[in-house]
Amino acid sequence: MYTIGQVSEMFQIPASTLRYYDREGLFLEMERTGGIRRFGEREVEALRVIECLKASGLEIRDIKQFMAWCVEGPSTYGLRRQLFETRKKAVEEELRQLHKTLDMLNFKCWYYDTAIADGSEDRLNAMLPDKLPPEIQKLYDNCHGKE
Amino acid sequence: MYTIGQVSEMFQIPASTLRYYDREGLFLEMERTGGIRRFGEREVEALRVIECLKASGLEIRDIKQFMAWCVEGPSTYGLRRQLFETRKKAVEEELRQLHKTLDMLNFKCWYYDTAIADGSEDRLNAMLPDKLPPEIQKLYDNCHGKE
DNA sequence: GCTTGACTTAAAGTTAACTTTAAGTTTTAG
DNA sequence: CTAAAACTTAAAGTTAACTTTAAGTCAAGC
Fold it and tell me: What is the DSSP string of B65-131?
């Protein structure tokens, strides 16, 4: 069993944030001794799931809903499974979006490398949007709306 | 040249947001006719870059800084190049984090598939954290801190 | 027993990124 | 010329996720 300070240290999360999560109902069955929170394995695993769901784009209120399902028992397995499935779809979409963002960033890096080499953007502007090197054309098209 | 309403439609961004961006200094040289904003190719490309930088995790105030560099001219090519390089690093890190998140989500989907098939988590709890199927073990380890 | 450090609470404050409101101006269609 | 649609502003309001503050309680070491 851990104190809030130890968990704060383990996860590199401020104790104030852990208290906030508790207030919001993310640690529904946490024990206390003399008013002081005791984090057990259940809470540590809950925190890993909280970080995962947060990273997937879920809001605190919806994570609270999930935690309530966990307390409710086996009748909510289906709902919980569905939640993770939906989060998977969201993260996969986010990954696709981030790859497009990366293409734009790579294009811009090439663009400024070229501008620096040339000393101006004149030649670049004359090349745009066609006449780009083939590998750069791909990056450009992918972040300027071409399918 | 486009009005704010046309750009709002094109990018599916509320006109109020475009005005907010303008107020924050993201369209530094935008023209007006009779007080009304005229978005040209420069502003449309700026908006594409804004969306990219936002998706990369950059804040509005830092995007404003970038736009100021663009107005400043060729002397800031190096700074602009460096900004995109830094954003690339941030996005690549975000991609790594999202892949770990996806591993956790896949593990949880398998976990609840199994719990549903079993009707309880008893057998699962007896399997954890070792004795998991090999392909599941990988997912589990990757999101429970094992290197 | 006393100090120190870690814990507790409720309530107020912070921040970023919008969003809404209210009042007014400009453009467009008839 | 007029009515409606689309634009304008400054200022206030919203939201999520914390974070800080103030005042107090608990546990450990000397």
Answer: HHHHHHHH-GGGHHHHHHHHHHHHHHHHHHHHHHHHHHHHHHHHHHHHHHHHHHTSSHHHHHH-SSS
